């Protein structure tokens, strides 16, 4: 019988006088072949947006059908880390039937279990086990444990607790939301009634995987606003040393987004690029980001508008509600981002509001140079040395005519004087 661990187990544990005493553990290496059972974990992550349409999977020990929701509507997670505890004595001392005990273990979180076990010094029999890409879909962990607890002379019971996720997975898992699994052996095949030697379990987390969006708006010099089409962005996150890791163009729609460093994101064609459309909408299409902080970097603006040099933070909370049940919201550039519609599209209301938004300032146009007034056909023409000379000095043709006139006057005068002189002599 398999069920998820819950807060009820702590209530039982607190009432058990023997719990703080030594609890004998069955070694995972004990027993000849045939005395061990193989447990196969299939670690899955469910988007909170898909929760309402998700049909819960009943762990019965069998491998799930590929069309079931636990596979079709979830994503495999490599790098999830698990510890395994022997809880056989706890099960015996609870004085509960198998079903009654497991029914009370339905709401306790992994973090609560970890804190409790550490406080009481209980040690796992297997520690630091990680899921990997054994199968095409990944997220697989296999391990063997004894079917029988020889110390207590009874069938064994185990507790499987998720303790974290490898940083290389690039995924944040909220251990307050993750649920442990309790396994009470033997597990019988629901069809044949025979004891099962291989048991498949499907632990899942509800993760806030988000596909962000925002609007690119141009602010004109007169204060008016217009959507900007064709502005390009890349996305990056920061590692522990503060170095930028950019989203690779080969990124997928699952949790295995690829990140890489680059010296020049503006020219690196291997990076994913996101471009604003005619409404200014920028969608990170095909990309689902887990909880954490990311940054958008503008690498190309449009003509007439300055390119923003500031990083644009994208903050995705780990859970959709806080401890008081209030909704938590994704923010972009410090502004709230409304959830997408049921169909996964940006809502009409968000498009009309154009929120959240990031601005680009219109470039200031240079002041025009002053031009000389057009005086053709009106007004008084401006006086220049050339115009002054043209008024004072005659042109070439005018000079020739003047000299001929003077010469003619001189000749006529000479003739007149000559005739007067001859007439005077004849007298």
TrEMBL record:
Coiled coil segments of this chain: none
Keyword Transmembrane: yes
Listed Pfam families: Gram_pos_anchor, GramPos_pilinD1, SpaA
Span list, region Disordered: 354-388
Domain of life: Bacteria
Matches recorded under PROSITE patterns: GRAM_POS_ANCHORING
InterPro entries referenced in this protein's UniProt entry, alphabetically: GramPos_pilinD1_N, Ig-like_fold, LPXTG_anchor, SpaA_PFL_dom_1
NCBIfam families: LPXTG_anchor
Record-given protein name: Peptidase
Organism: Enterococcus florum
